[in-house]
Design a protein that fits this description.
196 residues, alpha+beta, SH3 type barrels, 2 domains, 4 helices, 10 strands, 28% helix, globular
């Protein structure tokens, strides 16, 4: 059966708002203040200095600091950035939020410059609920505990989903992609009620 062209175009146009409503990432830049206000904005990163935002309808750019902003999203990078306390730090720091759910996953990127060039090191942290962040993986030799200890820590974190824990413990792949898979599966199970 062939759908008449006007009906097809109408159905297609009607589906776009639903797609944007249910999309995982927002379609606009925002900052979330420490007071809980969400502000639509534009971003600007000066050559030197901190990222700034300009609320829609304003002409003034404001510095983004952990004192005033607890989260922001930049559509250009498709990245959600949150202020959180990393292990052994007494002040919050902005890090990328890779996964949000009952278990959250964060990424910190450190660029070190020397006369020989630059080195980029990635650190990935996890926490359950509002618990303390724990280092899960890093691209450096100096990590927080051995791989075996970090694997046990993560296994304990997902222990209330016994089938997923068993699958994780049998898996030798400790790559970032695989760890994200387990976090997504765990979060999906906890949202659907498969895990108590």
């Amino acid at each position: 059966m062939k759908i008449p062209r006007p009906v097809f175009i109408t159905l297609t146009l009607l589906s776009f708002p639903f797609y944007s409503v249910f999309a995982q990432n927002p379609s606009f830049n925002y900052v979330l203040t420490t007071n809980g206000d969400t502000i639509k904005c534009d971003f600007r990163r000066p050559f030197m200095g901190m990222l700034r935002y300009k609320p829609v309808g304003s002409d003034k750019f404001i510095k983004i600091t952990t004192n005033d902003i607890k989260e922001y999203y930049n559509t250009k990078d498709s990245a959600t950035v949150v202020a959180t306390f990393l292990p052994d730090q007494s002040y919050p720091e902005f890090v990328n939020l890779l996964e949000r759910g009952k278990i959250n996953m964060y990424e910190k990127v450190v660029i070190t410059y020397s006369r020989y060039g630059s080195t980029t090191t990635y650190y990935w942290y996890v926490n359950k609920g509002v618990g303390v962040l724990k280092e899960l993986k890093a691209t450096t030799l100096f990590t927080d505990g051995s791989r075996k200890e970090r694997k046990k820590m993560f296994s304990d974190m997902i222990a209330d989903d016994e089938p997923l824990k068993a699958q994780f413990e049998a898996d030798n792949d400790f790559s970032l992609k695989r760890l994200q898979y387990y976090i997504r599966e765990y979060n999906k199970h906890t949202t659907t009620g498969d895990v108590k």
